[in-house]
Amino acid sequence: MYQHGAGRTGWVMQALVILLAVVYLIPVYLTIITSLKAPADINLMTAWVPPARPYWASYTTALAKFAPSLKNSVLLAVSATLLSAALGSVNGYVLCKWRFPGARFVLPLVVFGMFIPYQSILVPLFQFMRGIGLYGGLPGLVLVHVVYGLPITTLLFRSFYEEIPDELLGAAFIDGADFFRIYRWLILPLSGPPFLVVAIWQFTQIWNEFLFAVTLARPASQPITVALANLAGGQAVSWNLPMAGSVLAALPTVVVYVLLGRYFIRGLLAGALKG
Amino acid sequence: MALIVVLPSLILLAVFVYGFIAQTVYISLTDWGQGAALALKPDTRFVGAYNYREMFTGFLNVRFRQDLVNMVFFTVLFVAASLGLGLMLATILDQRIRGEAFFRTVFLFPMSLSFIVTGTIWRWLLQPRGGVNVLPSYVGLPPASFLWLSSRDQALRFNWQALPIFAVAVAAAAFITWAAWLAARRRLRAAALAGLPGVVLMAWSAAGGLARLEILPFEEPHGFNLALIGVVIAATWQMSGYTMALYLAGLRTIPDELREAARVDGASPLQVYRYVELPLLTPITWSAVIVLGHIALKIFDLVFAMAGPDNAPTSVPAILMFLTTFRGNELAKGASIAVVLLVMVSFLIIPYLVATFRGRRA
Fold this sequence. Notes:
The complex is a heterodimer.
Chain A lengths: L7 H28 L21 H41 L5 H13 L3 H13 L6 H24 L4 H9 L4 H9 L4 H17 L2 H6 L7 H10 L6 H35 L1
Chain B lengths: L1 H27 L21 H8 L4 H32 L6 H9 L6 H11 L28 E6 L3 H22 L3 H19 L14 E5 L2 H26 L2 H9 L4 H12 L1 H16 L3 H7 L9 H11 L3 H31 L1
Antiparallel strand pairs in B: 1-2
Helix pairs in contact in B: 1-14, 3-8, 3-11, 5-8, 5-12, 6-7, 8-11, 9-10, 11-14, 13-14
């Protein structure tokens, strides 16, 4: 942190940051006031004016409408997150601490999977899921998210495990601990923080995912993103419902972010700053 | 032992990433059994590059070409805006702002939303006769009438016929610049090798090769669709916090001694910023360009939620691929769009991966 010009510049910066924060919060303000208006009160010319009395029925209606897809999202995000974190931990441990032939080329090949546009695998994936009978349901979506989550979870765990000194593992190895024992007694106890980072990051990503959900889920198993897009996509909608739906769809990840922002940001930075 | 544990994951990735990519490439070279689009084992005929030739030069595929143009403009604008805004936010927050943690939370929280939620919210804000457009009426002015997401106005129009000329000129210039860069570092053999394709391209165009390269028999104008501005704003709102977090982390790792040393040498705060801090942030800028760039190239859900999949002015190849494949049932054509998308993303990602992992080994 460098010294800024005392006094005046400091105030200018403070004013600027407040102004920017207000601009960033405008969409949130409009979402919340619109979600609390009765359908009859929604008028484009008074869109910026808060309702005289909050109309909570939008939320009960939206909750009733979205209940099945919220349940799907919870089931999908929680199970896929746990599975992909568990796999990522093992993979990260191996790719960080063990050498095997070709190991040097494995990591870049794995990481590339993180960046591919999912469109470029969508048609074969679609055929594959129908072929093995997992098309349309939640288990298929879980499988997809776990597999395509492997690159990022592996990379995140690996970057944490790099901080564990190799000498520690070497010493354990000499004492007769094998591959599994080292993982069980040395790596796993140190995996709490990375597990939290990976879990939060994956949960957010899976909860928010749309392309796989819209192509691979049947209506009965569609997660909240698809339900919201269907509701808000139609013309002539009364906007209180999509807005209440947006709040419901955003709530879990925003709560996670506000409560555990530190871990969220660490996951966000890990990939980019390492490079 | 170690290998056996990771093997299942590696096989899964090999199949789901590389196997499926190979299959997509293959599908894009077939006609995917006309009429039996959703069959599990369709009758396919190998047609070579036919689908690609149709995409770039076929009479019926104007939308694909405009979508490509949209994608390029969207990527450039969105990455530039996110970098600029993120750097500005980080610079301000780095100045001992009161309530810094709160402001950081405010600027970063849109990242935790889904593009569907962001799109729904901004769709409400950018309605032609509502939201942002009514703001002027609060200060007594007539409401604005800009069609944020459906405007059909274009800027920076060019003729698709002229594209090969542009492409050849850019490629030749790139090779020759690269050669000059290598020559300046006294790597003459590498310079000659890098310059050769540039010289060949120039000689070939001089010999009239370009004149014979006509990709369309008629003029076809394309340009930057102004309707995309709304999508750029929403995407920047969501992602600029990311660049802010990167830059802020970068600024915080610059040792104070560096700034101190510059100040002792008589640098003003502005000079410290310009000559000490900004240059140290360059690697972060590259990382951000890679991450934001690949997100922009494959943007799908934001456009889907904001403007709907059928809104031509804001369409991008990722959307067109979805419509072609799952609504038009033309799987081979969809696959070829997907391959074009993958190639664009690879141009960005592969050099980055090579540089990163080569650097790590050294």
